[in-house]
Design a protein that fits this description.
This protein has one domain. It is built from six helices and no strands. The protein is globular, with a radius of gyration of 13 Å.
Length: about 90
């Protein structure tokens, strides 16, 4: 499951096809499946928080920079190996 979430995250963050979703995450265009960008972020966060890299990318894409910073601070306190990054 974690690999699937990371693959989806990489696709959303880099694909031209998903440009519209990135704009929805930043609140530049309205979304039809969430009231606002914060609700959209929370729905995705609950699903993606099981993968540290995917969570960090989601925070950066949605411009939640303070949360991204806090995550990076936590990462520095952990013993991170390849399986953690997958």
């Amino acid at each position: 499951m974690s690999d699937l979430i990371l693959d989806l995250t990489m696709t959303i963050s880099s694909s031209n096809v998903e440009k519209k979703l990135r704009k929805k995450l930043r609140g530049e265009i309205p979304t039809e499946f969430a009231v606002n960008k914060e609700e959209l972020f929370m729905k995705l966060y609950r699903t993606w928080c099981f993968n540290p890299v995917a969570t960090l990318i989601l925070c950066l894409l949605s411009r939640h920079y303070e949360l991204a910073y806090n995550l990076i601070q936590k990462f520095t306190q952990l013993e991170i190996d390849f399986s953690t990054l997958k």
